[in-house]
């Protein structure tokens, strides 16, 4: 049954319906009640409201629980700890094969019969210790020949250098150049006179004294020279005491005494004088002569390349007056020098090769293999023995590129070996290779 208001509304609906014959009949017009759509919407809204209330309640409950947990955590006990600086240890591990720190395979550089090999496998040898002696008799003959070649080359060079020295024209004594017959560019032949030298500032006189008297004289002793005719006296010096005996008439044994005296300008080679030394006079007068007078001769032919003096120059014994140039001599010297160098190199090569006939240990270590023994004949390039240096070992490890920067030379390493389980050995990082390897 409908309420009164609903009935009135239904009637109103029917009354307002159009009178068009094509109009569709409504449920109300057919005598049915209206749909219940408003009721469904009402129930859906109620359900949504209940859900919202449940969500709000859940949020409140969760917040309450979290606040209770924070309060409980705030009441927990804790242990104080003082912060200190320390080291963080990073351990890297790997495996590899232990190898000798140093090993060497001794190889023959020469061929020959082994004369001695005084060692056996397992022996400990020192660095440079003799391992093998190989017969070198053939090589020693070659060394002797090389020595002879060098000596001959040096003699030829010496002769060539003497020829070079002969191109230097030197004074044979001290004096003044009284004549010079060459100038630069002149051609000189061997034996040609190129200059004359005379020492006229000092005159020399030689007189005879009895042997018994002369034996008491000494070089440097003062003497008095008296010029014959004018009887003028001049001071002189004993410069030479003869050792040869001369016999005069009456079997008088005498010796020659030479005295030098400064020339005041009055002495000439024709002047005579007598000499008094220590109160004793000479048995005969002597004749003056120049202290030095001689000619300079060219020892070799050549062209004058340089003249160092002029006429009137004062020169000393051995002084170079002029220099000659001779292309032939220069070539001989160059050739001789080249021959000497070649001979030296040949001898050095032979001597170095001789050292190869004595085979020495390159390192200190243990003989782990001996292939050749005394009496064997070996050829160049063959392996004689193997030496290991076992005082310490080496181990190569591969470290990842992310960890290699943590490894530095000098760091301590702990090692274990399969052959000695339970035993640890200590090592040191000796090298970190900068070259990477892709595995």
Can you put this structure into words, describing what you see?
The protein is α+β, with helices and mostly antiparallel strands. 26% of the residues lie in helices and 34% in strands. The protein has helices at 4-16, 37-74, 137-166, 211-214, 327-355; strands at residues 99-107, 112-116, 124-125, 130-134, 168-170, 175-180, 187-188, 193-210, 222-227, 233-241, 246-248, 252-262, 272-277, 280-281, 286-297, 302-307, 314-315, 320-325, 358-360, 365-370, 377-378, 383-394, 412-417, 420-428. The strands form five sheets. Strands 8-12-10-9-13-15 form a six-stranded antiparallel β-barrel. Strands 1-22-20-3 form a four-stranded antiparallel sheet, with no helix packed on it. Strand 23 and strand 24 form a beta hairpin. The radius of gyration is 64 Å and the shape is elongated. The model is unreliable at 1-34 (pLDDT under 50).
Figure out the total of helices: 5
**What characterizes the major β-sheet?**
6 strands, antiparallel, barrel
Fraction of residues in helix: 25-40%
Succession of helices and strands: HHEEEEHEEEEHEEEEEEEEEEHEEEEEE
Which radius of gyration do the C-alpha atoms yield? 64 Å
Report the count of strand segments: 24
Give the low-pLDDT segments: 1-34
What's the rounded overall pLDDT mean? Answer: 84
Shape: elongated
Strand order of the largest sheet: 8-12-10-9-13-15
Q: Roughly what fraction of the amino acids lie in strands?
A: 25-35%
């Amino acid at each position: 049954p409908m309420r009164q208001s609903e009935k009135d509304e239904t009637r109103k609906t029917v009354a307002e319906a159009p009178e068009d014959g094509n109009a569709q009949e409504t449920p109300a017009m057919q005598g049915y009640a209206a749909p219940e759509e408003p009721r469904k919407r009402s129930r859906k809204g109620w359900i949504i409201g209940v859900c919202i209330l449940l969500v709000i309640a859940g949020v409140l409950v969760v917040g309450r629980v979290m606040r209770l947990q924070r309060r409980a955590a705030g009441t927990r006990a804790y242990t104080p700890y003082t912060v200190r600086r320390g080291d963080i240890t990073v351990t890297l591990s790997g495996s590899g094969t232990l190898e000798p720190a140093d090993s060497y395979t001794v190889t023959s550089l020469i061929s020959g019969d082994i004369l001695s090999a005084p060692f056996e496998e397992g022996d400990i040898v020192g660095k440079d210790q003799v391992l093998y002696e190989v017969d070198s008799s053939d090589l020693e003959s070659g060394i002797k020949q090389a020595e002879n070649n060098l000596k001959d080359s040096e003699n030829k060079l010496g002769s060539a250098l003497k020829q070079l020295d002969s191109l230097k024209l030197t004074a044979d004594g001290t004096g003044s150049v009284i004549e010079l017959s060459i100038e630069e560019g002149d051609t000189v032949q061997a034996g040609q006179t190129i200059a004359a030298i005379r020492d006229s500032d000092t005159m020399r006189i030689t007189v005879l004294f009895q042997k018994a008297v002369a034996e008491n004289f000494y070089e440097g002793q003062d003497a008095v020279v008296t010029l014959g005719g004018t009887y003028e006296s001049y001071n002189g010096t004993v410069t030479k005491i003869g050792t040869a005996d001369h016999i005069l008439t009456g079997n008088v044994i005498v010796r020659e005494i030479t005295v030098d005296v400064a020339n005041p300008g009055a002495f000439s080679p024709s002047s005579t004088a007598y000499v008094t030394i220590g109160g004793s006079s000479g048995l005969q007068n002597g004749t003056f002569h120049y202290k030095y007078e001689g000619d300079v001769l060219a020892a070799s032919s050549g062209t004058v390349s340089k003249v160092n003096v002029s006429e009137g120059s004062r020169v000393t014994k051995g002084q170079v007056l002029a220099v000659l140039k001779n292309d032939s001599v220069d070539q001989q010297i160059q050739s001789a020098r080249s021959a000497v160098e070649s001979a030296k190199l040949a001898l050095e090569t032979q001597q170095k090769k001789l050292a190869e006939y004595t085979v020495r240990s390159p390192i200190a270590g243990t003989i782990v293999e001996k292939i050749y023994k005394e009496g064997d004949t070996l050829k160049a390039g063959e392996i004689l023995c193997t030496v290991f240096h076992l005082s310490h070992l080496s181990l190569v490890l591969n470290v990842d590129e992310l960890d290699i920067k943590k490894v530095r030379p000098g760091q301590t390493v702990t090692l274990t070996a399969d052959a000695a389980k339970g035993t640890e050995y200590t090592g040191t990082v000796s090298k970190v290779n900068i070259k990477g390897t892709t595995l």
